[in-house]
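We treat protein structure as text, and this decision shapes the records that our systems exchange. This encoding replaces a full spatial description with a residue-level series of whole-number codes. Below, we set out a record of this kind in full and without editing:
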Amino acid sequence: MTPPPDTERAPLADAWGRLPQSSEGVARLGSFTRARVERIIGIVIAVGCVALGAQGFFAALDPGVEAPGWHPAMEMIVFIPYLVMLVACFIGRGVRLFAGVFVVFFTGALVLWPVATSGVPIAGGAEPWIFFLLNIGTAASVLSFPLRLQVITTIVIPVLWGVVRLTQTGFAPAYLVPVPVDVSFALILGGIIVVLGWVFRTVAANVDAARAAAVASYASAAAADATEQERVAVGALMHDSVLAALLAVERAHSDRERTLAVGMSREALTRLANAERDASMGSEAPVAADTIAREIETSAAELGHPLRVERVHTTDVRLPGVVARALTLAAAQAIANAIQHAGAAGLRVSVACEADPVQVAVRVRDGGPGFDLHAIPDDRLGIRGSIIARVAAVGGRASIDSSPDGTQVTLEWAEGA
């Protein structure tokens, strides 16, 4: 039997649901570790950018580097996107967007640098304030761009700085060696940042892949176990009911035997259709006695005869789940018999409980013509197997009182009995 597509993912979703969650949450299956690594990278880069940005900010307090009117504009072009990016990194929202915006604005500032510093004498021995922000641009690309663009940005920003710095100095011999050295240092530091980001993300992706494989393996094992349990249950049912019906059909010669074989076949097919429902008898975990009444109402509705179960003290009593399940299934069988043989005439069901000691009694009454229990052939298992034996298996007792005025099936269980 092939489950529908939605149910195929149920074991996998359940397995992922058992993994611990954090405040950030998991964006999708398979991103458990990657999401946290991204958060950590964002915070670490933000802390480093604070240090580098502070150097650039204090150096920018000297307004003599750019031409008149350019200094405030250049500071706004660079530092406003920089501050917005830092806030995004610390709060964990919009990091990729605002980091990309900073890279774009900072690159534009570098392009404008020769124009902004045109005609201003160069102060020897001191790097301009924008130099201290070079690797912030590299780090921002790690937060925003895919790996290929990270590498390109890491190369372009330092090289662009070298070009504009030499252009600003008029390619003076005094700067032909220091500027390339600064560019090489920026390239090395930027390369380290890109490599570390790539390594951490790769490790996180591998951990997520291994986690997903493990969870998928768990889901597959759980599905296989459920299939095996269903196979065993159906196999037992086939052996007990269907095989007996087939043997009866094969050996039927008289009309009476043929009628009996038809009845056994019908009952076997009915039980086969309800195999999933009968496969599990519940656990020993205590459940409220009111559960019995609710499930009986559900069973009656499924049989096409909705009814209201009378309840007496069912909300304050708890009993083992296996007992509640057995009583529910036995009552459902009694209701099915009443519908089939008595036309559901006068059908009423009640569940009564006592708390000290725990006792429960389920009564199914109908106003049909009744029957003689002793006249039912021994090979008819509807009452003996599905009602009497089922209740006896959990330590309970089932009694059937039938007369021309109707039939009452009483199912009783008492703690310690």
In short: The longest helix spans residues 178-251. The CA atoms of residues 358 and 415 lie 5 Å apart. The chain has two domains: 5-214, 283-414. The chain has 13 helices and seven strands.
